[in-house]
Amino acid sequence: MENQDTIKKYEDLLRQYNIVNQIAKTVASTLDLNKLLRIILTGVTLGDGFGFNRAFLFLIDREQKNLIGRMAIGPGSEEEAWRIWGEIQQKNYSLEEFLSSEKVEGEGQYTTLDEKIKKIVIPIIPEKVISKCLEDGIPRNVDLAGEQKQFEINYFNNYFITDKNLIDKELSDYIDYPKFL
């Protein structure tokens, strides 16, 4: 049993390494910033490589002390998620095929999720969760549904936030848990 778990972990790591490697190769093929960002976000959301179905990119406005939504990849609704997942499964895209397809060409590929994220401006308030993450570089996993197991909470050592009261008011307003904006 322990050997199977170890093998599974190594297989997952290898798959993730291959995804990062393919993203790096594809990124090297363009100088268009929007396309580069879209390739990276698509790479981490395609299939089950990293386990994400959506990715958001926020940039820091240091003068205004805000995070500003720049780009998003992924479905904007549950129906769209099922449609996209079905298409990927049916066509059996490899990451390389998908990244080199017209689906990642950039302009004109905006989704409702992308539009929503671009409208978000989150103030960076000292001593709040976002500010702490930016200062120390330590990610905090937000689980407002409280579905994480005790083992996982202990693993993250106090960086696993399950109490909605500890989440910045500004951030919790943008989270429409459990699934879709």
Strand count, sense and closure of the main sheet? 3 strands, antiparallel
Distance from N terminus to C terminus (CA atoms, Å) equals: 39 Å
Please give the radius of gyration in angstroms: 18 Å
Count up the domains.
Answer: 2
- Morphology: globular
Helix content: 40-55%
H/E series: HHEEHHHEHEHEH
Query: Which structural class do the helices and strands define?
Result: alpha+beta
Averaged pLDDT, please? 73
Beta content:
5-15%
Cross-sheet strand order for the largest sheet: 1-2-3
Concise account of the structure shown:
The chain has 181 residues and is an alpha+beta fold.
Task: Write up this protein.
- The protein is α+β, with helices and mostly antiparallel strands.
- It has helices spanning 2-27, 33-45, 78-91, 95-100, 112-118, 129-136, 150-155, 169-172, and strands spanning 55-61, 66-73, 121-123, 141-142, 160-161.
- The chain has a 3-stranded antiparallel sheet with strand order 1-2-3.
- Helix 7 links the parallel strand 4 and strand 5 (160-161).
- Helix 1 (2-27) runs antiparallel to helix 2 (33-45).
- The longest helix has 26 residues, at 2-27.
- It is globular and about 45 Å long.
- The chain starts with a helix and ends in a 9-residue tail after the last helix.
- Mean pLDDT is 73; it is low at 149-160 and 176-181.
Q: Which key features would you list for this structure?
A:
12% strand, three-stranded antiparallel beta sheet, disordered C terminus, 8 helices, two-stranded parallel sheet, single chain, 46% helix, 181 residues
